[in-house]
Structures are given as C-alpha cells and as structure tokens.
C-alpha cells in the first residue's frame, strides 16, 4: 500500500459511522451484510449508510457483491491487511519484539457475544 492509499483509508475510517460499519462487517465475516441491515445495525438512514458505504468502498475497506436483487457488503480483508502492514512495515526500528503484543492482539479470536464491562 502506498502512502496516498493509506491516507485515503485513514480518512474514511476517521468518521465514526464509517468506523462502526467496518467493524460490523469485520464481525460479519465473508458473508457480509445487506445495506439495509447495516443501516439498522449502525442506526442511520438507508441514504446515509449508502453515502458511507460508497466512501468505504472507494477507500478499499469494504467490497460489494450482487446477490440476486441485493448488494451485499463485506469487509475487504485484503485492504485492511494492507493498511495494517503499511503501519507495521518499518516497525520498531529493527526490534520486532516491541511489536509482538500488537500483532498478538490482532489475531482472530471468536467473539463470545459478551461485552466487556467498563472499569
């Protein structure tokens, strides 16, 4: 990923609703979700979610696909991986052990469906 692409992705993710959409679609996995279900889940109007989906697609963070009469959106895991790799590329000034906790935290872990209590 080039710096220009990373800036576009970060700009898209810096908006609250778009960040919520990406996190929702990451949780949904490759199956993805229809725009209406996304709008309902993030509590915005269908026209508003369409605006955000277009921006996220342009940034390479999500990917649409047609299924019958619906458009299903899913996280673009390649784009997300490339963004993380961009950040970590020159990590830690030659000391990879510094980055190990961040990499371990990024490992896929199944959700238990329970939210952590705030301290």
Automatic annotation (TrEMBL):
Q: Which Pfam families match?
A: HTH_20
Keyword list (alphabetical) reads: DNA-binding, Transcription, Transcription regulation
Limits of the HTH arsR-type domain: 1-95
> Does Transcription regulation count among this protein's keywords?
yes
Q: Name the InterPro entries for this protein.
A: ArsR-like_HTH, HTH_ArsR_DNA-bd_dom, Metal_resp_trans_reg, WH-like_DNA-bd_sf, WH_DNA-bd_sf
GO molecular-function term, one example from the UniProt record: DNA-binding transcription factor activity
Residue ranges that the Swiss-Prot or TrEMBL entry lists as coiled coil: none
UniProt entry tagged with the keyword Transcription regulation: yes
Q: Give the superkingdom in one word.
A: Bacteria
Gene3D superfamilies the record matches = Winged helix-like DNA-binding domain superfamily/Winged helix DNA-binding domain
Q: Which NCBIfam families is this protein grouped with? A: HTH_metalloreg (NF033788)
Recorded protein name is DNA-binding transcriptional regulator, ArsR family
- The species is Bradyrhizobium brasilense
């Amino acid at each position: 990923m080039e710096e220009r692409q990373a800036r576009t992705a970060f700009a898209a993710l810096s908006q609250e609703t778009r960040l919520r959409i990406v996190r929702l679609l990451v949780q949904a996995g490759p199956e993805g979700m229809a725009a209406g279900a996304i709008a309902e889940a993030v509590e915005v109007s269908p026209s508003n979610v369409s605006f955000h989906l277009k921006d996220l697609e342009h940034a390479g963070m999500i990917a649409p696909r047609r299924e019958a009469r619906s458009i299903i959106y899913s996280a673009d895991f390649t784009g997300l991986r490339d963004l993380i790799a961009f950040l970590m590329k020159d990590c830690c000034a030659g000391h990879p052990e510094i980055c190990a906790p961040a990499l371990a935290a990024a490992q896929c872990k199944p959700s238990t469906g329970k939210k952590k209590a705030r301290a």
